[in-house]
């Protein structure tokens, strides 16, 4: 539920900040319902595939499938039904682009990311792509097209997930190893590569945050907030590089779960270009066939 709540928040933010005008609340509501169904479907497929491994891990052994509180056929049928419901709502109310993004994300999550987890630590990259798609669902639902501002927000979500998840995976590295998952910290006993990855991706957060202002999605106040929050992430990641302890990883994780809500709040409060003449915000790079370029 917490993960899916984050999906809905980022979808809503993508929708709201896609334009400086008052958002269409009815369309936003339908977009959120369709996205919620799609996100639930992806999560259920994931737990269905991983139920045996979940039973081996302390952090997941209490899930419904390992505890046999629900049957596997029922979970499968519900997953398929929710995927169809999410697609139908989005294509009916929001358009084919957000519908394709949400449904494609289910396939990416269940058919590529989940099977890769016990095979290679590169699964985290695919998982981060899955987490970056929801704001694009919201953005394209509101505008009917892809544009640079939407891609920048998606990029922020993609990069943020890497230090966030590396910190979490380091704290639970023994548990992931017990479940047979090839998370980077589970196959990097020294933590050197894990720490370097966290530092590098934290460094990228600062210029990405500034691009949000450059592309007219938010103003200068957001830029200042993003720099401060990005520097905090960098500082905590460097501390982990030095110490490589559970306590240092926990500090990175805490910084990451503070970074994102504050960043999203800042972008919503300060949404809109710093210059009335800025045109990069919604310059479409792809438009659905039945959509017209805004005049």
Strand order within the widest sheet? Answer: 1-2
Q: What is the molecular shape?
A: flat
Percentage of residues assigned to helices: over 70%
Low-confidence stretches: 291-295
Straight-line distance between termini: 41 Å
CATH superfamily grouping of the largest domain: UbiA prenyltransferase
Structural class: mainly alpha
- Which CATH-level-2 architecture of the largest domain? Orthogonal Bundle
* Total individual domains: 2
Main pleated sheet: 2 strands, antiparallel
Rounded average pLDDT? 91
Q: How large is the count of helical segments?
A: 12
Look up the CATH topology of the largest domain: Tetracycline Repressor, domain 2
- The CATH class of the largest domain: Mainly Alpha
Order of helices and strands: HHHHHHEHHHHHHE
Can you count the beta strands? 2
Radius of gyration: 19 Å
Task: Please describe what this structure looks like.
There is one protein chain. The chain has 295 residues and is mainly α. The chain has two domains: 1-146, UbiA prenyltransferase (Tetracycline Repressor, domain 2), CATH 1.10.357.140; 147-279, Four Helix Bundle (Hemerythrin (Met), subunit A) (Up-down Bundle), CATH 1.20.120. Helices cover 73% and strands 1% of the residues. It is built from twelve helices and two strands. It has helices at 2-16, 25-49, 51-54, 72-93, 96-116, 123-143, 148-171, 173-179, 184-187, 192-214, 220-243, 246-269; strands spanning 145-146, 286-287. It has a two-stranded antiparallel sheet. The chain is flat.
